[in-house]
C-alpha cells in the first residue's frame, strides 16, 4: 500500500491525500512535521534531503515534492481524465500546476504568515501590502481563465490543476484582507465543494 508521510494540517499533504482519493488509490498516512514525528532526522532526510513533507513511499520507490507526487499517483492509477496522456492536453494541465507552485504560492510567502498565521516576525506593512497586491493579481489571472473555460482550471473537466489550485485558493479565501470580486472563482469553488474528497482535505476549515 502507498504510504504518505506528513501531517494533515499541511496544505501540501492535503493536496496529495485529495489526489489519492480522486485517483481511487488506497493509502495510509503517517503524521510527520511540527508537533508530530520529526523530519529533522537522518532517517527522514534519507527519504527527503529537504526534511519536508509530504513524502510518498510505494514499495521501494520514494518521492518528494507534492505536485510530482500528485502526477505520479494519477499516472499509477491510469486516470488520464485527471492528467491526460495526450501531450498538449497534458501540458495544459501541467502549466497550471506549475503556475500554482511558482507564481501563485510565491505571492503569499510573506502575507500569509503575517495575516493567516499571525507570525510576529512578519510585520512589515509595505511587504504585507505588496504581498496582498501580488496575491490578488494571481487570483485575477485564475478568474480570467475560469471565465474563459466556464468550468475548471484547465478546461471543461476536472483535473489535477483543480486539485493543486483548490487548496491554494482556499488559503486565499481564508486569509483576512480585502479581496476583489471573483464570480468565476466562486462558482468554480462551489463545483469543487461537490467533491467529497475536497471537503475532507481542501475546504475543511484548515488554512
From TrEMBL:
Q: Where is the GST N-terminal domain?
A: 1-81
Domain of life according to the entry? Bacteria
Please name the InterPro entries in this protein's record.
Answer: Glutathione-S-Trfase_C-like, Glutathione-S-Trfase_C_sf, Glutathione_S-Trfase, Glutathione_S-Trfase_N, GST_C, Thioredoxin-like_sf
Q: Which Gene3D superfamilies match?
A: 1.20.1050.10, Glutaredoxin
Ranges for domain GST C-terminal: 86-207
The entry sums up its family as follows: Belongs to the GST superfamily.
Family matches, as PANTHER family: DISULFIDE-BOND OXIDOREDUCTASE YFCG (PTHR44051:SF19), GLUTATHIONE S-TRANSFERASE-RELATED (PTHR44051)
* Protein's name according to its UniProt entry: Glutathione S-transferase family protein
